[in-house]
Design a protein that fits this description.
The longest helix has 19 residues, at about 175-190. About 35% of the residues lie in helices and about 25% in strands. The chain has 17 helices and 20 strands. The strands form four sheets. Strands 1, 2, 3, 4, 5, 17, 18, 19 and 20 form a nine-stranded mixed β-sheet that branches. It is globular and about 70 Å long. The chain is an alpha/beta fold. The protein starts with 5 loop residues before the first strand and ends in a 9-residue tail after the last helix.
């Protein structure tokens, strides 16, 4: 209805979708109009009726970022504990030995989820995939936040166990895995039916090595019968790669192909250690062709893995091979713009060239490629008829000055500090660095007590009973 239209008048810059070239382009000194259903006008002067007007002077209108892989749960509580940790015998990866040590109560889950939500919104994310354990507050908090969210309740049959900091074992419980699968499907169905219209569901077997072939295939069948995406962590560590070679003689990508899982509805979490990676022993280069030919997407989350000295080889190479690579934040700091910057840096280092990937390509990965991974053409872009999901970027922010190319300034310098406001379905969900619909500051305050409890409980969850001072020593000594 015309009486619900808002117009952004004389925006300095709009990152608009150019259908002719299938990518983004700058529009200058132009109007954008939208309502709850989507964008109704992009480009030139808007002369139609409206009820609200926003000044676009010294502002850039940017499409909402699409984060295809993040984890709430315990992840926001782990901040500052294990960044310098790792298991040497497992190629320095900290995940197996340390991620299972954090315990938080059911009451604390809501605070952790709210903090993650706030951090994502502050960095311009409007759509995200949250891979976590199902809990009672999940859908209500996501809906209340105003964000566009896909819940991906994880399930698996095997739990990791690190023996003596030198060997990764798997403790299998098929019945428990099947029960978790059934509960996950219930959550996926509930999200799809949610009255907000902004929630979706994804079938998410947790890791390729912790699920049996039968469970992986059952998960794919359940997803495809519902018409929803599938996501699974695969080729994410060398420990996983070696385990799959031991079991099946196949890389993760080849193994999933043999099970019939590869396809345009599958998002592989991380997908770093493919056959052509320098750390692997295969010395072949077939996995990229498998991914490209099948239309399988990759969720690239460089920050978490670069902390452990691991890097995709490389973003530019995957894209040039025709693989749809989207961006995720995985764990903290849940900052999509910083993740995009790291994606660019890691690609140039891994590719050995500044030309491996450019700013436009990384921005595409965080918008159009993410939308493609989710099977959508109405998000991640500013175009008439697309969802009104966007950010307003303050071009007067010191990090954006001096101004020649605003997108380069945003990704290379200013990041979330220049994001003024975020809108989803035409409603403001973040304003002046704070979410508008959830209690972000209250959740932040609560997390300190949650982390204090988790740190006290570390020895109880460590198989070797080590204290926090050993598991997570401070960066510097505390003088008495």
């Amino acid at each position: 209805m015309p009486d619900t239209i808002t117009v952004i008048r004389n925006a300095h810059t709009v990152i608009a979708y150019d259908a002719a070239r299938g990518g983004h382009a700058y529009l200058r000194d132009t109007d954008v109009a939208f309502d709850a259903a989507g964008f109704v006008h992009v480009g030139g002067r808007y002369e139609g009726p409206f009820t609200a007007e926003i000044s676009g002077r010294d502002r850039m209108v940017m499409p909402g970022l699409v984060n295809v892989h993040c984890h709430s749960g315990e992840e926001p509580v782990s901040k500052s504990l294990f960044e310098d940790a790792g298991t040497a015998a497992l190629w320095g990866q900290a995940m197996y030995e340390y991620s299972t040590l954090i315990e938080i109560s059911d009451d604390a889950v809501e605070a952790a989820l709210t903090v993650m939500l706030g951090d994502l919104l502050r960095s311009g994310v409007t759509t995200f995939v949250d891979i976590a354990g199902p809990h009672a507050c999940w859908l209500p908090v996501l809906a209340r936040s105003g964000a566009r969210a896909y819940v991906a309740p994880g399930f698996r049959e095997a739990a990791w166990h690190v023996e003596g900091s030198h060997r990764l074992d798997f403790r299998w419980d098929a019945a428990r895995g099947r029960d978790a699968f059934a509960r996950a499907l219930e959550t996926v169905d509930a999200a799809r039916a949610h009255p907000s219209g902004r929630l979706g569901g994804i079938v998410a077997p947790a890791q390729v090595e912790t699920c049996s072939p039968d469970l992986l295939q059952a998960a794919a069948e359940a997803a495809r019968s519902r018409g929803v995406p599938i996501t699974v962590h695969a080729a994410q560590t060398m420990a996983e790669h070696e385990e799959l070679m031991r079991r099946h003689g196949l890389t993760a990508v080849a193994y999933l192909e043999s099970l019939g899982l590869l396809g345009p509805d599958l998002i592989l979490g991380h997908c770093i250690f493919i056959d052509s990676h320098a750390w692997t022993r295969q010395r072949t280069a077939a996995d990229l062709d498998r991914l490209a030919a099948s239309g399988t997407s990759v969720a690239h989350c460089p920050v978490t893995f670069s902390r452990s000295g691991m890097v995709l080889q490389s973003l530019g190479r995957y894209r040039q091979a025709g693989v749809n690579v989207a961006i995720g934040t995985d764990s903290y700091p849940f900052n999509m713009l910083e993740e995009m910057r790291m994606a660019m840096i890691c690609a140039r280092i891994a590719g050995g060239s500044v030309f491996d990937v450019d700013t436009a390509a990384v921005f595409e990965a965080a918008t159009l490629s993410g939308a493609r991974a989710l099977g959508r053409s109405d998000i991640g872009r500013i175009a008439r008829g697309a969802k009104a999901d966007f950010s307003l970027v303050d071009l007067r922010h010191p990090g954006m000055q001096p101004l020649y190319d605003p997108l380069r300034n945003l990704l290379h310098c200013a990041a979330e500090r220049a994001v003024d406001a975020v809108y989803v379905d035409g409603a403001c969900v973040m304003w002046e660095d704070r979410p508008t619909l959830v209690d972000y500051d209250g959740a932040l305050a609560e997390l300190q007590a949650v982390q204090d409890f988790a740190v006290r409980r570390l020895p109880a969850h460590d198989p070797r009973g080590r204290p926090a001072t050993t598991l997570a020593p401070l960066s510097l000594p505390v003088l008495s």
